[in-house]
Please model this.
Amino acid sequence: MPDSKETLLEVNNIEVIYNHVILVLKGVSLNVPKGGITALLGGNGAGKTTTLKAISNLLHSERGEVTKGSVIYRGEPVHHLSPEALVKKGVVQVMEGRHCFEHLTIEENLLTGAYTRRDGGAAVAADLEMVYTYFPRLKERRKSQAGYTSGGEQQMCAIGRALMSRPETILLDEPSMGLAPQLVEEIFTIVKNLNENEGVSFLLAEQNTNVALRFAHQGYILESGRVVMEGPAAELRENPDVKEFYLGMSDEGRKSFRDVRSYRRRKRWLA
Amino acid sequence: MSADFLYGIEVVLNGLMAGVLYALVALGFVLIFKASGIFNFAQGVMALFAALTLVGIMEGQVPFAHLINAVFGTNIHHFGWQVPAILAIFLTVLVMIAFAWAVQHFVFRHLVGQEPIILFMATIGLAYFLEGVGDLMWGSSIRTLALGLPQGGSLWVEEMTNGLGGDDFYGFFIDKLDMVATLVALVLVAGLVAFAQYTKQGRAMRAVADDHQAALSVGISLSYIWVLVWSLAGIVALVAGVMWGAKSGVQFSLSLIALKALPVLMLGGFTSIPGAIVGGMIIGVGEKLFEYTIGAPYLGGATENWFAYMLALVFLVFRPQGLFGERIIERV
Model:
């Protein structure tokens, strides 16, 4: 657990509406402490990605908007800022599904991450080396077009690209998506190293509750656009409901989806 | 070498250089399409507008003179000065950049994330709007472009090659303006490719072309990049307008060259800068050669009007992404 309790990012009761009609987030609040890894958990359509995009202000181009609540970064409201202004403030998002620039080489991809920086080529080159030490595989593939690299390499490229902006906080959306368990482990280990060695704070949206809770310090669980549970990762891991609904375990061991009682209890919990 | 063969070569050379002029127009399309997915129907009108502006500035014409006179009851037409070509070109570039900014600020900023067909419709509207503005600003008479570009056949080339194929061959006839256009186009393309490949803004431009959302997420401002590509397209339009304008006068029909660029794009691919050039050359050579070998002797001539479109059609069937279009990356 990080010692400092300083809050970097504060999301207060935000509501997000797409296309003026579809209410996706119904009042989500969360805190991201400095130097920690915070996990945002939940199933498909729970609102994890929307929450991250509401913070990074990438909603606008998808016809979504934050209609209520506020997003505070270092004590300053940021929900009216453009994505590039936010990147300059040190908050960068790694989008779900990697989103590398397919026709650019890996190295060019990484360099685009430094687009907002004004501290000169030498500093950027040094950070490129830093990224290569964390992701040696990217160095091997640095002349390949990103579109032709593997899913794991693309995920590394996306994280590396975000690192190139020298961020204070990375919003990491679903890094495990479509990757083999071994690779998921590798990526999360690198995230942990980055957190510990480079002091980058993470807000991590993840469906893979098991892995996420092992690496995160605290977590929030989202269901249908609401936070239904929050707490330190260790506590969440031991919570019987989390165990049953997200980790697929219960007191009686593994359970089947056909279990009617469990379904009813979950319904009640959501109401 | 027989004279016939040499005349064939002459046809090819002339085709190549005509092709470069098509390519100049196609290049503007490619820039905007690649970076924003917008098929800019207004590219031809932009070339007309740029050429009109250049002529107007050089002649010291008062922009919107008619409007000003109508509103204020004045009778002004000219400032009474002549602006040197270099300065006029610089000012025209500034006008094209201002136009790029206005297009982004007043139109496309509000259409982010819309369907391509809606963006396309917007560019059609833009084309007719710009045509009107061009008329209002500079009048609608046919103008001549007095940039001092060389005109007519090159005597030097003719003399150098005279007699190569015996007494029947009188040397290559090559238009000097075409030679200048080719040179300018090559420099322009080399410059654009180098810009896209090796500069930070160029890299950002390619990044935006690949993935808008991801570009936003790393802090690239889409508006800025779009103003940049529209400005570049405006500059390319200026060059195309100057070359075509010098050839056939600055007049309304200049805006129709946009239609000539379409088959070039089908051939070269909508997303490739070198493709636009090579596509233009293939079309240029193809139509001249077809006319020379088959069209004129057997089909009664005038095949140049449709040959390019037929060729494009064939290409669409067999290679829809064009010769150099970005390959759609599919990992297996």
Remarks:
- The radius of gyration of chain A is 19 Å.
- The longest strand of chain A covers residues 7-18.
